[in-house]
Each structure stands twice: as C-alpha cells, then as structure tokens.
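User: Fold this; tokens only.

Assistant: Input:
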Amino acid sequence: MTYQTSITTMTQTIAARDGTWAGIDAESVARMQVQNRFRTGLDIARYTAAIMRRDMAAYDADPANYTQSLGCWHGFIAQQKMISIKKHFGTTDRRYLYLSGWMVAALRSEFGPLPDQSMHEKTAVPALIEELYTFLRQADARELGMLFRDLDAARAAGNAIEEQRLLNAVENYQTHVVPVIADIDAGFGNAEATYLLARKMIEAGACALQIENQVSDEKQCGHQDGKVTVPHEDFLAKVRACRYAFLELGVEDGIIVTRTDSLGAGLTKQIAVSTTPGDLGDQYNSYLDCEEIDPATARNGDVILNRDGKLLRPKRLPSNLFQFRAGTGEDRCVMDCIASLQNGADLLWIETEKPHIEQIAGMVDRIRDVVPNAKLVYNNSPSFNWTLNFRQQVFDAWAADGRDVTAYDRARLMSVDYDCTPLGDEADEQIRTFQADSAKRAGIFHHLITLPTYHTAALSTDNLAKEYFGEAGMLGYVKGVQRKEIREGIACVRHQSMSGSDIGDDHKEYFAGEAALKAGGAHNTMNQFAA
C-alpha cells in the first residue's frame, strides 16, 4: 500500500466510526504505517530472501554483480553502517549484514567474552538478529520522519513542486532493511536442536543461515586448530532441518549456506555409515589414515574397514578421534561442497587459511564440473594478515618470473619499509581488487568480513583514549570525533535525533496536538548542529 492510498483508506476507516475517532488524523496514521513497513520478522525474512534470490540470479548473469557485507555485533553498528551506505552510494543494493557467531561469543554472551566454540547461549543469536532489524527499522522511521517534516514545511510555504518531490521520495523510499546472513555455528546440538534454533532465527528476520560441518560439541573457530568434522549424512540432516524450518514458516526463498572446514580439519569423531561401495559414507571413510591389519593383530575396540579385500584399522588418537590422511583437505572440501549442493544447499563457504584466488578457484572449478552454477560466500577474514599474504604472493610471483627481488626480505615483508615500494604498491592493488577478481575467477557471490567492527571499535577507542587522557584533553574528542562528525555529515552527531527523540515528538503531536510537550524546541542543544 502506498502512502497516498494509506491516507485514503484510513480516512474512510475513521469516518466509519461515527465521529468517535475524530481526534485521529488519517495522514498521521499513514505516516506511522509507512515508518513501520515490516510488522514481523517473518515479513523481513520473506522480503530479504527475495532480494538474495534476485542478486544470485544477477551474479549468475554477470559476476561483476557480487555482493558484500560487514559483520555487526550490535544493532547500532548495523544501523550506522546502512545509513553510511545510503549516504555515500545512494542505494543499499547488493549490501547485506553478516551476523558472526564469533562476535556473539566474544561480545554478547552473558558468560562474558568467550572463544568461538559454541559455548555462548544460542538464544543470543536470534536476539541479535531481532536487535539488528529493530535498529534498521528505526533508521527508516527517522529518515522518513525527516521527509515528513520537510513535506509539512513545503506545504506551509505553498511550494507545490517541492511537495510533489517529497511525496515521490516517500513513495519510492528505499528501506535500510537488507538481508542478514546469520551464523548458526554447527547447529548447537543434534538436528532437532538445529531446527529449533533455525526457526527462532528465521522468526527474528534471518533469510540466510550459514551452518558448518564440524562436530557441535567440538566446534572451533574456522581459523583455529583442532577442528573435527562430521560425516556427510549427519551434516545433511541439519541442512534439511534448516530447510524444514524455512518451509514451515513460509519462507520458501530462504537461503542455506553450507560451510566446509575440511581444508583445515584433519580429524573426525565418527566413522561414516556406508551401505554401498562408493556412497558418501564410503567416500568419507576413504580419506581416513589407516593401517593394514590381520585378525591376529586386531586389538579390542578396533574399528575395522574392509577395502578391496584388505582389513584396515583407522588410526585412533588418544582423544578417541580419528585422523584423515595429510594432504586430503582440498579433495574433502570439494566432496563436501558437491554433496551439500546436491542435497539442498544454496551457497557454499570454504574456510581457507589464506586469501589466495587460485587456491579457491582450483576447488571451485572442480565443484562446477559437477554443479555448474555453484557459488561461494567467502570470509575476507581479519584472521588473515592481508598485507603479509599479498606481499608474499607478489614476491613469489616476481621470483617465479625471474624478476629481481634482492631488495626485499620475504620474511619481513610486513615492515613499514616496504609500504611505498613497487612490491608493496602491487600487493595493495591486488588487495583492492581481490573481491572483484575472485568474484570473476573463483565463483564468489558474496564477500564478507566477519569481525571488522570488533576491530574498528577497538581502534577508534584506543585513538580517543590516547588523546583525551593525554595532553590534548577535550580537544582529543572535539578534533578527533565531533568536528569530523559535523564536517563529514555523520548522522549520529545529532545523537538525540538518532536515538528517536524527533520520532517521539511527532507521536506526541499526533496524540496530544497543541498540548504536546516536545523535546525538540528552541532550547534543545542539538540545534547547535543544525547548520
């Protein structure tokens, strides 16, 4: 329903109440309705899922149409990110949010800071999704409220042209609400537990769930050691649980992102069940590190595999885990990805140990031999030392081409000494174009940075503390923060408005008319920022 039709409909509704609703203004109601476009989280999930499906089709047509997101650990961070995107680029198209389980564990758990090992309360994840969208919806209400104030001013001035421009702006308003890809870790338990959590996350607004193939009770951050994977059938049961949750709630376009940690995971807790030679279970077991035995050398408790007539004993560690053969990680990743896509996944996530386009592309080429439209979500992780990695890649490429690299020490390429050198400049250019290049070459549909706002919060706080508590004193805040906010047009410099005081004033006027006691009067110090 458009703004104008909402006014007409509400006018008729009020008139039908025989004067008992005479104190209700139809246009004020229409404004509140426009400012609250999304009534439930499921409305958001359906709306944003459709966006992702359209974006995936656009990427298939042209890989230049890749998408991006930044991880957000608080609703305010997500809100300011999307306000900034609209300000600088005029549109939120192809820009999403990422909800990182790592940041939930580190920043939002009632236990306090925790490592990324699924120890945080799983209810914190849907609670954060709901918080993200609460802040994004408030950003809509605030911005639309500013348009309504301008509209009233244009009408008061008799400026019909400006009035029509503003009405068009309201009718064609682009919301701050965008898709969120939400981390469900390894499902926080069995498939039923995964389903229950997925349902809560979708009800909160998530249109895309990212789930990984690790053991729930042994889950580790993808960039830590000690990762343990599960057989495919165990993982696929959780993938199906997520799909059932989407379908039950009427979000048919819901997106499932399946992550494989097999590249860095050399352990498994279980031997897969195999009923037919060459099935998924048999393929999973084929990568186990085994030793040949005969019945005479079998030990009590041994697990025995029969392969081509030979009896094999998978090597069991003191932890009671089984290990895979070294060097099988890429093959297992490819197998994981194909199995996921053939069993309901929409997008893939391959957790790598470095950002190297050809390494990623090598696996994607093999996957696409079987599933031609395979697409990735890729973690542009802060766990990578991007500067060192790309300088070393350039160094190695130059050396392979026979170029002189004697001016560079490969072991200390992180040094500031190399910042303005030809090698440093080429590495920076490759970092700059990494997303576009890998979207084209390696099938990466969505680029995200998992933990960026964790690091930006720490960096900006360090800079402020250093200045404010040092000789700069109050100038440390004024020069380093407030003056920049004013000159760069940062919305929250008017923090009272950002927190909703103008929206509250509008409501007071709707409810009480001329008797309203409003906060935004002449004596509000926020007026100092109007110029």
